[in-house]
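Reminder to self: tokens first, then the designed residues, so the page reads top to bottom the way the pipeline ran.
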């Protein structure tokens, strides 16, 4: 296992109650993404380090994703390359070496499928919406029809607040503003509709929740990830300067993947509400992020134009309230942004070099 991923897997284990995972079957859709891929690594870590005996079922669109290469031949891992947006796709979970009619019942599902990179969800609006609505409905129908005691969590996004007033931290019970003409509406509406699908399953008596994840970062994403932090890091390695699209004044509260996992697992196992905000606490600007990267790789940060067209559809400030989560589960010590960035940048630089050498 990559040493930087193992480092923060240790941290998650020390800050979580995870015994429910022992001898269970866990489905992760969208396993080629940052959150899904990291959780796959973490469950494998539990098997290797603590003999949890978890059957891990992974799905994504790619036939054999490089991100998951180190897991795919493991006896406890079943990988299924399926298109959840295609209604013709048959969804079957089966034990390795066992015919397809011997389906495995899923105990826990983390639905991470869907495009999280703006470049992808803006260029493919129909599939973006379908993954969050039709794909989710099909997967939940399957797992709950075969195991009524299963637990599932849908990875939604703080983007559902994108058109709300940005002056305060958004709460889960806020009314949501929507505009069908907004550039990001396929993603926003897809996430809102996915949450509605989750609530339909809850009304039927099933244990399903939504998590509005905000700005998760950390080791594990694919090298061509185009989101802001990875884009700036790649520029820092490849270019003479780190050029920003605009002046970098937008505020963000990034959350390290280890803190995200602690929160998601608590919600999955013991959450009683329908939806939770999952995010960080330290507020930084995009320019602050670029400066940390620039200092790490010894590159100058160059500001772009204010209100550059590339950045206009993104919110100026992203801030969500964690009161609901903390009232239910209590506070815990978040990783500082400084330490989180050190972990992330060390992983990124090391992984980038290995990929380049190959």
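Designed residues (358 positions):
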């Amino acid at each position: 296992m990559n040493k930087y991923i193992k480092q923060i897997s240790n941290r998650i284990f020390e800050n979580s109650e995870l015994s429910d995972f022992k001898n269970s079957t866990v489905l992760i859709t969208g396993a080629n993404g940052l959150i899904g891929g990291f959780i796959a690594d973490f469950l494998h870590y539990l098997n290797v380090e603590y003999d949890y005996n978890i059957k891990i079922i992974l799905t994504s669109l790619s036939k054999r994703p490089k991100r998951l290469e180190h897991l795919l031949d493991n006896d406890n891992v079943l990988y299924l390359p399926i298109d959840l947006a295609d209604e013709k796709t048959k969804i079957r979970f089966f034990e390795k070496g066992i015919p397809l009619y011997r389906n495995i019942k899923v105990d826990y599902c983390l639905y991470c499928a869907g495009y999280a990179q703006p470049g992808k969800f803006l260029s493919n609006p129909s599939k973006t919406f379908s993954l969050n609505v039709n794909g989710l409905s099909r997967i939940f129908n399957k797992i709950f029809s075969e195991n009524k005691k299963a637990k599932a969590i849908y990875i939604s996004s703080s983007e559902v607040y994108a058109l709300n007033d940005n002056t305060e931290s958004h709460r889960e019970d806020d009314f949501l503003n929507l505009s069908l003409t907004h550039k990001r509406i396929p993603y926003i509406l897809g996430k809102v509709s996915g949450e509605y699908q989750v609530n339909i399953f809850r009304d039927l008596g099933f244990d399903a929740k939504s998590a509005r994840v905000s700005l998760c970062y950390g080791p594990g994403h694919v090298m061509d990830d185009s989101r802001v932090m990875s884009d700036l890091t790649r520029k820092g390695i490849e270019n003479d300067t780190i050029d920003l699209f605009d002046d970098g004044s937008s505020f963000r509260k990034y959350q390290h993947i280890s803190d995200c996992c602690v929160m998601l697992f608590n919600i999955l196992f013991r959450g009683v509400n329908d939806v939770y905000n999952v995010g960080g606490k330290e507020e930084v600007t995009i320019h602050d992020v670029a400066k940390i990267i620039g200092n790490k790789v010894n590159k100058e940060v160059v500001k772009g134009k204010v209100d550059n067209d590339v950045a206009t559809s993104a919110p100026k400030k992203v801030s969500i309230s964690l009161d609901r989560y903390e009232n239910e589960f209590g506070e815990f010590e978040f990783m500082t942004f400084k330490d989180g960035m050190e972990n992330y940048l060390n992983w990124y630089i090391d992984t980038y070099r290995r990929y380049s050498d190959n």
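The CA atoms of residues 321 and 327 lie 11 Å apart.
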